[in-house]
């Protein structure tokens, strides 16, 4: 069966094609009752507007570009759910592209999205993205742009994320309160803004509790390759546990670092938390069923995506002005589970 057209609806409701078109666009020229009749009929008969024709006529694509590091983890998937929900409700399609943590690929993604005529871009910058000039350049050509998750003080636009420094402080403070004094941190690099903030939060907690910062307890891994990341986690965990005075607990700063660390410790035969406690930034839905259940710094991923999309749509339709730019910081929370329970001193 061919798709229903505006003329089909007009004939069925004894209205003009122009009236039906305006009703479906929620025009002020059409009364509420007429709009309701048209909307109900269109919905009941599964009317699908010709998006291509609409785009050509109005000069708008009806699509929004989204650039993420990767879609192979639950945190990013939840953010994309939030973005999709907000965009669908507002009548926009989304085009999702992955940078794979590569600056060059991120730039390529942005060029492709621009070429496709998207009306706005949501971007969570790649790990290699230190300089944001190519993203700032989008604004120079009039492209509405919102940063989400991996936000930066160097970007003067709308941003939606969490308080990374506070989340790391809370995680480290929790370990200290549970009796762990020798706490290591596995991070992804000081040049990555959100990772740097998480590192500072870790140091803040040590300082607040008069615990010396030990460089040998801080290890870094490059997240650009999944296989390389796994190898790096394994190497660093082994090295930490072989120190003359090994750490009693480990704080990991990303989802993948957390789950890889848990796996490596199991492979090495370490008991968690008896031998070493673990807490990390992680939104994995498996945290409750891991062995042991994993303590996490929980980030509201769905809300990050939803609010970022809503902000972008408001920019696109002209409801927000540049002087109203803001950074929305959503709160994090600790989900405490077995992996970081109170330390029990070994019997002598």
TrEMBL record:
Domain HTH lacI-type: 4-58
The entry's keywords: DNA-binding, Transcription, Transcription regulation
Pfam family, one: Peripla_BP_3
One GO MF term attached to the UniProt entry: DNA-binding transcription factor activity
InterPro entries registered for this protein in UniProt: HTH_LacI (IPR000843), LacI/GalR-like_sensor (IPR046335), Lambda_DNA-bd_dom_sf (IPR010982), Peripla_BP_I (IPR028082)
SUPFAM superfamilies (UniProt xref): lambda repressor-like DNA-binding domains (SSF47413), Periplasmic binding protein-like I (SSF53822)
Transmembrane segments: none
Keyword DNA-binding: yes
Identification of the protein by name: LacI family transcriptional regulator
Upper lineage: Bacteria, Pseudomonadati, Bacteroidota, Sphingobacteriia, Sphingobacteriales
Gene: ccpA
């Amino acid at each position: 069966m061919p798709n229903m057209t505006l003329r089909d609806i007009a004939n069925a409701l004894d209205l003009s094609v122009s009236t039906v078109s305006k009703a479906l666009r929620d025009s002020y020229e059409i009364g509420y009752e007429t709009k309701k009749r048209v909307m109900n009929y269109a919905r009941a008969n599964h009317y699908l507007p010709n998006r291509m024709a609409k785009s050509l006529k109005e000069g708008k694509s009806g699509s929004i570009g989204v650039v993420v590091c990767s879609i192979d983890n639950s945190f990013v998937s939840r953010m994309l759910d939030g973005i999709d929900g907000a965009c669908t409700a507002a009548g926009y399609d989304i085009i999702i592209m992955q940078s794979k943590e590569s600056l060059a690929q991120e730039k390529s993604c942005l060029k492709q999205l621009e070429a496709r005529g998207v009306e706005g871009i949501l971007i969570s910058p790649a790990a290699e993205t230190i300089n944001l000039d190519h993203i700032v350049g989008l604004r120079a050509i009039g492209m509405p742009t919102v940063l989400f998750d991996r936000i930066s003080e160097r970007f003067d636009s709308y941003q939606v994320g969490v308080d990374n420094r506070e989340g790391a402080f809370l995680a480290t403070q929790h370990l200290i309160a549970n009796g762990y004094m020798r706490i290591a941190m596995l991070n992804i690099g000081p040049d990555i803004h959100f990772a740097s903030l998480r590192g500072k939060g870790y140091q803040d907690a040590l300082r607040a509790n008069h615990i010396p910062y030990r460089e040998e307890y801080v290890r870094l891994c490059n997240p650009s390759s999944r296989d390389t990341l796994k190898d790096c986690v394994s190497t660093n965990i082994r090295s930490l546990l072989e120190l003359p005075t090994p750490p009693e607990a480990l704080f990991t700063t990303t989802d993948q670092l957390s789950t890889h660390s848990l796996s490596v410790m199991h492979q090495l035969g370490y008991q968690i938390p008896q031998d070493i406690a673990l807490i990390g930034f992680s939104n994995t839905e498996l945290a409750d069923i891991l062995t042991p259940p994993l303590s996490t710094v929980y980030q509201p991923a769905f809300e990050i995506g939803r609010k970022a999309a809503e902000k972008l749509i408001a920019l696109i339709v002209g409801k927000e002005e540049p002087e109203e730019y803001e950074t929305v910081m959503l709160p994090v929370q600790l989900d405490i589970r077995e992996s970081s329970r109170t330390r029990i001193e070994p019997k002598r």
